[in-house]
Amino acid sequence: MDELLKLLKNNAKESPENLAKLLGQPVEAISEKIEEYEAAGIIQGYQTVINEDKLEDGPVTAVIEVRLTAEREGGFNRIAERISRFPEVRSAYLMSGGYDLLLFVGGKTLNEVASFVSEKLSPLSGVVGTGTHFMLKTYKRNDVLMHTPDENERPQISP
Prior knowledge:
This protein has 5 helices and 6 strands. With 159 residues, the protein is of the alpha+beta class. The protein folds into 2 domains: 37 residues, no CATH class; 85 residues, 2-Layer Sandwich (Alpha-Beta Plaits), CATH 3.30.70.
């Protein structure tokens, strides 16, 4: 990953003028490079990292391991793309190891996520099994620490 992408990943709101100063390049060159990345699909969008634990009615998030049966034509792609289209699915990854697909699923309640798994995901042709893990607390998301101790906060000492 080049330096421009690293800077944008850390702060997507950084202005092209400031990026140009940081990288020692003309503003026009930086703006053109960003446009090239967007056109090539390297940059897919810009998002804000939200600490959902601090929201009163924060969403419930589950990590779901899915075992699939590979299709003769296309392997896991067709079923994975179908699963990815569900609005409850925030992220989907093809994995190696004990399961084939890793999903991050969101809902308003535990029951809403459980209903998604039992009524929409598990009955799909090609889904062999699932393992659902509910996220309880977020310590770090997208390279951002969700809690940083105050300068005066002392670390706990264990015996």
